[in-house]
Structure formats: C-alpha cells, structure tokens
C-alpha cells in the first residue's frame, strides 16, 4: 500500500512538474487556472482519465490488449523493493538487489510489444517494433555501465554500494566513473522512451505509437508506469553514482529524494529542449558509440581494480 501511494503521489507531482518545466522552457507559465498556480491540474487530469470510457478495438486481441497495461504497471512495485531510501529504509534487504531491478525492468518491453500487437493497429505495431529494438540495444551499454560500478564495489547489493561512498560529492562514484554515469543516464532516458528517444510513441510519425488505441485508465497505466520507471532509473543512478542517501552535513532520506528529483528535472529538461532523433540515429548512437565506450570503460575499470 505504501509503494502504491508513493507511485501514485509521485505520478501527480511529476505531471505537474512536467507541465511547468515545459511551460517555462517555452516561455509560458504552464497550467495556471485549476488551483493556485495550477497545482490541482494533475488531479483534474487523473479524474478525467478515470472517467473516460474504456475502448477495445473490435479487431484486436482483447486478452493481449488489456494484459499489456497491467504487465507494464504491475512489475514496477518489485523494482522499488531493494532500493534503500535511507538508513535501513528498504522493502527487502537483498544481496542481488541490483540484479532484481535489471531483470524485472525488462517486463515493460514485453508489455509494449503486446500493446502494439494486441491493438491490431499498424501504428501500434510499428511503435512496438521500435520499442523492442530500442530497448534491446540500450540495455547492453546500461548493463556494462552498471557492471563497472559492481566491479568497484565487489557487490550487487545496493546498500553495500551506498556504504562504500562517502557523504561529500568528491567521495561519490561519479568522480571515478563519469563515463559510466553519462552512459547510464543516456540509456535510462532511452529505456523509459523519453524524448529525444521517444521513437516508439512519436506523435509526428505514429499518431501515438503503441498506445494509439488506448483510452482512459488503459492509457493511464502506461503513463504511470513511465513516470515510475523514471523514478527507478533516477533512484538507481543516485545509489550507484551519487552516494544514495548520503549527503553533506547530515545523511538522510531527504538527500536521496533531492538527488532523485534533480535527475528527474534533468530528464524533463532533455525532453523539452532537444529534438527527436531519427530511428537510424538512435541505433547508431548505441551500437557505434555507447557500447564500444562502455566496453572500454569496463575493461579499464577491471584493469585498474586488478592492479590496485
């Protein structure tokens, strides 16, 4: 229940932040009418989604069509279980917590594939094909960047990785692994289908991509899952590279939340600043640049750890 409340509340907060960031980037105030400075606008949007009629394409596969949003949203709760938000504040203490997150994060790709396939819609199917090829490509450099940190820490335990970092910024892993952090951040944006890597749902090309046929809370579950995955990516990045819940003067959960929201704002800034890349460019960036760079970084890390 606590995780469900956390995901739902953060969904409302991030919708508001997204619209405000978009407004200020485009030199306009963003939502401003519903509540003070439009602060109740996300609640109005949520009520609108809940009240909309659920529609099933007459020629679509009903089972796959409705299994997709459920499969996209449900595994999200598993991803939060091993994350240590503060000293001793986690769901389950796991030695292989990082491996669990990486394994269950892949379910979203299957969900997007089922959504496009079950819709029996050409735009949905094209979006699903793009999602699968994009995710398969960007998972490789992401895993290689995570391996560099696990080599240094000698563990896949998120608490252990946090414990080996200090409270001050120069004691965090981002200082020794800036290349791995950059690769992880780029891959995290691509894995969550955020602009400029939002090819699976490119409005100018595919109407809405894999979720073209979804209405109401069918679309709402995909929407919530995307924001929840952004939180997970930011939380894992904070643990691996930014010292987790450690911070100057006094450690605590507030430092962890500050780091998460700083990375979320960075991802939102990317969306409303950079243009969408072409599909051939998105794969070239991964296969020709990120994977070789991640391999070199991992080999250098392994060599340094061996010599030290």
Automatic annotation (TrEMBL):
Keyword flag tRNA-binding: no
Keyword list, A-Z: Cell membrane, Membrane, NAD, Oxidoreductase, Quinone, Translocase, Transmembrane, Transmembrane helix, Ubiquinone
Catalytic activity: a quinone + NADH + 5 H(+)(in) = a quinol + NAD(+) + 4 H(+)(out)
Localization in the cell: Cell membrane; Membrane
TM regions (residue ranges): 63-85, 97-117, 138-158, 170-190, 219-241, 253-274, 286-305
Membrane topology value: Multi-pass membrane protein
One of the record's GO molecular function terms: oxidoreductase activity, acting on NAD(P)H, quinone or similar compound as acceptor
GO biological process: aerobic respiration
Gene Ontology CC terms, in alphabetical order: plasma membrane
Entry-linked Pfam families: NADHdh (PF00146)
Translocase is among the record's keywords: yes
UniProt EC number: 7.1.1.-
PANTHER family: NADH DEHYDROGENASE SUBUNIT 1 (PTHR11432), NADH-UBIQUINONE OXIDOREDUCTASE CHAIN 1 (PTHR11432:SF3)
Described purpose of this protein according to its UniProt entry: NDH-1 shuttles electrons from NADH, via FMN and iron-sulfur (Fe-S) centers, to quinones in the respiratory chain. The immediate electron acceptor for the enzyme in this species is believed to be ubiquinone. Couples the redox reaction to proton translocation (for every two electrons transferred, four hydrogen ions are translocated across the cytoplasmic membrane), and thus conserves the redox energy in a proton gradient. This subunit may bind ubiquinone.
Description of how the protein assembles with itself and partners: NDH-1 is composed of 14 different subunits. Subunits NuoA, H, J, K, L, M, N constitute the membrane sector of the complex.
Similarity section: Belongs to the complex I subunit 1 family.
Protein name: NADH-quinone oxidoreductase subunit H
